[in-house]
Amino acid sequence: MTEWIQHRLVLPEFDRGFHLVTRMVEEGLPELSSFRMGWLQVFIQHTSASLTLNENADPDVRVDMETAANRLCPDSSPFIHTCEGPDDMPAHVKASLFGASLTIPVRDGRLALGTWQGIYLCEHRNRGGNRSLILTLTGTRK
């Protein structure tokens, strides 16, 4: 029988950059270990932060991702929407490029991520505040 579970996870405030949050997501789903197989959808409820999967071992990758994102869309870009500061509209663009959700397979009570994959919160604002994720787990129990 397929089951559905949903939790809201509020992350702590992070500095601007790319942050590995895999463990926080796993800890936000205490039922995960009881699932034999299924899917986890992770959705961020914000328009100036995003989610992506990438390298989970070398923190230099996260620094380089931030550098690349800023080269693609620098704060100095000539946008019309500037009422929330020079980092706001670039943050919206970056959030659209990276995306608002991830779908990850679940196998034997764990996220079936590759050896070097981790979930990143991409904070595109200088002061974005706490970020909320909706974690929706579906599948069959062990």
Structural commentary:
- The structure is a single chain.
- This protein is an alpha+beta fold and 142 residues long.
- The protein has one domain: Jelly Rolls (Sandwich), CATH 2.60.120.
- The protein is 22% helix and 40% strand.
- It has helices at residues 22-27, 59-72, 88-98; strands spanning 3-11, 17-20, 35-44, 49-55, 101-107, 110-111, 117-123, 131-141.
- It has a 5-stranded antiparallel beta sheet with strand order 1-8-3-5-6. Strands 2-7-4 form a 3-stranded antiparallel beta sheet.
- Strand 5 (101-107) and strand 6 form a beta hairpin.
- It is elongated and about 55 Å long.
Short note summarizing the structure:
Helices cover 22% and strands 40% of the residues. With 142 residues, the protein is of the alpha+beta class. The strands form two sheets. The chain has a five-stranded antiparallel sheet with strand order 1-8-3-5-6. A three-stranded antiparallel sheet has the order 2-7-4.
Query: What kind of sheet is the major sheet?
Result: 5 strands, antiparallel
Total helices: the number is 3
Instruction: Assess the beta-strand content as a share of residues.
Output: 35-45%
- CATH homologous superfamily caption: YjbQ-like
| CATH topology grouping | Jelly Rolls
Note the overall shape: elongated
Judging by the overall fold, what is the CATH architecture? Sandwich
Roughly what is the average pLDDT, rounded to an integer? 97
> How are the strands of the largest sheet arranged?
1-8-3-5-6
The portion of residues assigned to helices is 10-25%
